[in-house]
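Q: Protein A?
A:
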Amino acid sequence: MGHLSLAFIGSPPEAGLASLEKPEARARAMVNDHFDFVWRLLRRLGVPAADVDDAAQQVFIVGTRRLGDIPPGSERTFLYGTALRLASTLRRNSRRRDRFLSSVQAEPQASARTPHEELERRQALDVLDALLHTLEDEQREVFVLCEIEELTAPQVAAIVGIPVGTVASRLRRARQCFANELKRVKTQGTEQP
């Protein structure tokens, strides 16, 4: 993952720097506190690896521009909604162009891994991405938030804006679809000569 520049915040108004200190500090805190979450979320919601850094920056540009509209403590919810809409747009555009990437690197490389371990890790991430892609969008977002981001059902319900029961229902269906697809992939892998 790359680092996000706060250069997009803009230059201070003529009223003086003192009036921007608090919003700039809040914007910085929002990026520092939530960048990894937004990056992983975008990646797991189907944004191609080559586009994730730019997409994350777009999410934070929107967040910074709308900072005055975001109640303190609700930044994560706002960023989630923005990331969800952006991911949907990018997926739709990608489908329209029939653009597929042949190699995906979802996480930065760790230097402590052997080449074999790194290959296995990349293959596992490719399988995970492929399995997530088989889920319906509504199931995928709940599955990613609960299973990968480890949020609770009430947290997901608040972020997505749906009842807790709907979260549980979507998660149950997503887990079943994911398990079935994983079983199919494993079966295919053992049948090859």
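Q: Protein B?
A:
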Amino acid sequence: MNRIDFYVLRDDDPEARWQFAGRLADKARRLGHQVLVVVDSAEAARQLDDFLWARPEESFLPHRVLGDASAPPAGVEIAPADDLGEHSGVLVNLSQSVPEAFERFERLAEIVIQAPDVLKTTREHFGFYKARGYPVNHQKL
């Protein structure tokens, strides 16, 4: 693990979290990184997939749900936290848990919004990483 970043948004809307995740994933993809966005379930992965196809309206983020054989390979994939595939590039964690194999990734991003449930879980994630000696960076947006 080279770097862990917490991006703290002022917003409390879950869609703001998903929009920022899309922008962050797109930036990392454009820099040549493979990106995996993890969520809590296969259903949440499908919902995020649908969301990213529609937003932002002015751009296109090539992505797919991990393992979707009907979609072409993409630099950004979405998966439940219990199925990280073979990824090791950039992990964007939107799940309520710390994915088991997070340490194999070069970078990990946690996106914080001002919703009580997200604040609680991301604080727990912060404590988890710090307790294991990982340097954690904050970026207030």
